[in-house]
Automatic annotation (TrEMBL):
<dbReference type="GO" id="GO:0061629">
    <property type="term" value="F:RNA polymerase II-specific DNA-binding transcription factor binding"/>
</dbReference>
<dbReference type="InterPro" id="IPR011598">
    <property type="entry name" value="bHLH_dom"/>
</dbReference>
<feature type="compositionally biased region" description="Basic and acidic residues">
    <location>
        <begin position="56"/>
        <end position="65"/>
    </location>
</feature>
<feature type="coiled-coil region">
    <location>
        <begin position="105"/>
        <end position="132"/>
    </location>
</feature>
<keyword id="KW-0238">DNA-binding</keyword>
<dbReference type="GO" id="GO:0005737">
    <property type="term" value="C:cytoplasm"/>
</dbReference>
<keyword id="KW-0175">Coiled coil</keyword>
<comment type="function">
    <text>Transcription regulator. Forms a sequence-specific DNA-binding protein complex with MAD1, MAD4, MNT, WBSCR14 and MLXIP which recognizes the core sequence 5'-CACGTG-3'. The TCFL4-MAD1, TCFL4-MAD4, TCFL4-WBSCR14 complexes are transcriptional repressors. Plays a role in transcriptional activation of glycolytic target genes. Involved in glucose-responsive gene regulation.</text>
</comment>
<dbReference type="GO" id="GO:0000981">
    <property type="term" value="F:DNA-binding transcription factor activity, RNA polymerase II-specific"/>
</dbReference>
<dbReference type="GO" id="GO:0045944">
    <property type="term" value="P:positive regulation of transcription by RNA polymerase II"/>
</dbReference>
<dbReference type="GO" id="GO:0046983">
    <property type="term" value="F:protein dimerization activity"/>
</dbReference>
<keyword id="KW-0963">Cytoplasm</keyword>
<protein>
    <recommendedName>
        <fullName>Max-like protein X</fullName>
    </recommendedName>
</protein>
<dbReference type="GO" id="GO:0005654">
    <property type="term" value="C:nucleoplasm"/>
</dbReference>
<keyword id="KW-0805">Transcription regulation</keyword>
<dbReference type="Pfam" id="PF00010">
    <property type="entry name" value="HLH"/>
</dbReference>
<feature type="compositionally biased region" description="Polar residues">
    <location>
        <begin position="10"/>
        <end position="30"/>
    </location>
</feature>
Amino acid sequence: SALFMENARKSSIVSRANSIGSTSASSVPNTDDEDSDYHQEPYKESYKDRRRRAHTQAEQKRRDAIKKGYDDLQAIVPTCEQQDFSIGSQKLSKAIVLQKTIDYIQFLHKEKKKQEEEVSTLRKDVMALKIMKVNYEQIVKAHQDNPNEGKDQVSDEVKFNVFQGIMDSLFQSFNASISVTSFQELSACVFSWIEEHCKPQTLRDVVIGVLHQVKSQLY
């Protein structure tokens, strides 16, 4: 009986201790990581959403800018507006727009170079004409100052010699530049010879050389 009473007392003490420990544990605040994550999770999701939205907007702006650039190229480059029968009525791809733009820029560079060469040639012609103009003015002034000087002193033979000398000089360059393999090649060579050897400055030099030669023969 005494042993039974002792065991019952110990059991009661253990039961009360467990009860007190359970009550104390339930009164302590929960500081686990899971609870902390639970309170911070809504803030993290909101931050991710804002970053995702900002990235989406930036990407859309970039795509809009690229699309506007291609639209501007199609509006500026004339060949992009022409119908391409190889693709029918389909919209031009970005690769085709870029290739047509490159081709058009290369064409403009060639045209610019061609125009610069033409301008250079015209400037040389203008300079030669100015020189001829000055010489003619001097000749006219000399005749006005001395209208009787040299009158009836130049014979037809001298005129013919001058003309012959000019033609001989031109024929030498003509004969050296012209090919008669075919009519097409002959035509091309003639135009090339005219552009190269019949410039005002070149003709002026030829005439002056012939006049000096005739003068040396007469005097």
